[in-house]
Write a structure and sequence with these properties.
The chain has 14 helices and 12 strands. The chain is an alpha/beta fold. It has a 7-stranded mixed sheet with strand order 2-8-7-6-5-3-4, sandwiched between helices. It has a 3-stranded antiparallel sheet with strand order 9-12-11. It binds pyridoxal-5'-phosphate (PLP). Pyridoxal-5'-phosphate (PLP) binds next to α3.
């Protein structure tokens, strides 16, 4: 099976596992795990922030990032296809009393300053006050799209004017950085809080880091414990994330080539299937008259695993455990399936 369901499915390599074996460990609740501390420092430094917090998942990292920017009874604005609103089980509202209100970007996930600004409700008025704006880069359900830097800059300036916080869900910021060549710190400095994931394209089995200023990270650290998510000798995991950081960023370009190859073959036979051409490692495809489930079953029967992201939308994600040749094969299989779609 050529498994293109997600880039989270990757298995850690032997070398990555060996990095975990040799890691220096301590009790992170006491602030004594040197490998965790090294990962937090390194990530913060890369993103141009003061401090970092290593957590178990991107969901937790987003949850804590937004928590540091908004109070109970306030709202965060985001795209209607954002991971925080579609795939985090209502946790921002359920656990922290922070509601989400969304804008539409017609499927691409590309954020537009004027659209966002029009939604802002001042704090202290009759309406629920807007405390923060959340941006996803790259945008997962949008098809791995990359937010244009000038948009991010304009959103940053607009948020400052309105005294509204800015959180970046950078689960795949690494992919944007590899495509654009824009330094991670140039992205990072536009946001008050940034979440990055080590368990997506970078291939580590577990872990995300939230970065921000010292005070926000101290607040997030206490809240992480309240949620029962503080940990002890987590250096075994941090070591694999550090390995991913050192070895697996530049090679994301291979995933982007693989995704482009799949998309090229499908578009050649049926251009309507891909409305947003892939900019990174994710190919989103419309299944037309067939349901996503029918398409998934047909692809699976031919040795290609995809995932559904809507009733008539499927996704292929090129990743570390899939070779270029396998992307070519998958592209051929999908082209055959999509050639006949109405
Ligand atoms: C854009 C984005 N943000 C956050 C997450 C959440 O990460 P996790 O699955 O580690 O909670 C994901 C997961 O795929 C994601 O795609």
């Amino acid at each position: 099976m050529i498994d293109l369901r997600s880039d989270t499915l990757t298995q850690p390599s032997r070398a990555m596992r060996e990095a975990a074996l040799d890691a220096a460990l301590g009790d992170d609740m006491y602030g004594e795990d040197p490998t965790v501390t090294a990962l937090e420092r390194r990530t913060a430094e890369l993103l141009g922030h003061e401090a970092g917090l290593f957590v178990a998942s991107g969901t937790l990292s987003n949850l804590l990032g937004v928590f540091t920017l908004a109070n109970r009874g306030e709202e965060v604005l985001c795209d209607e296809q954002a991971h925080i609103v579609r795939a985090e089980s209502g946790s921002h509202a359920g656990l922290h009393g922070i509601t989400t209100r969304t804008w539409s970007s017609a499927g691409s996930g590309i954020a537009d300053t004027a659209t966002i600004e029009a939604l802002i409700s001042p704090r202290g008025g009759l309406l629920t006050g807007t405390a923060a704006v959340e941006i996803e880069n790259t945008h997962n359900f949008g098809g791995g799209t990359i937010q244009p830097y000038e948009n991010l800059l304009a959103i940053h300036n607009m948020a400052k004017r309105h005294h509204v916080g800015l959180h970046l869900d950078g689960a795949r910021l690494w992919n944007a950085h590899v495509v654009t060549g824009i330094p991670l710190a140039d992205y990072g400095k536009l946001f008050d809080t940034v979440s990055v994931c080590y368990s997506k394209g970078l291939g580590a089995p577990v872990g995300s880091v939230l970065v921000s200023n010292q005070d926000a990270i101290a607040k997030a650290r206490v809240q992480r414990r309240s949620l029962g998510a503080a940990w002890r000798q987590a250096g075994v995991l941090a070591a694999m994330a550090l390995y991913a950081l050192e070895h697996n960023i530049a090679r994301l370009a291979d995933d982007h080539i693989g995704a482009a190859e799949i998309a090229r073959r499908v578009r050649d036979v049926n251009p309507a299937v891909i409305t947003v051409p892939p900019q990174s490692n994710i190919v989103v495809m419309q299944t037309g008259s067939r349901t996503a489930t029918e398409l998934l079953d047909a692809a699976k029967a031919r040795g290609v695993a995809l995932s559904a992201v809507g009733p008539t939308t499927v996704r292929a994600v090129a990743n570390l455990n899939v070779t270029f040749e396998e992307c070519v094969t998958a592209g051929k299989v999908l082209a055959e399936l999509f050639a006949t779609l109405g």
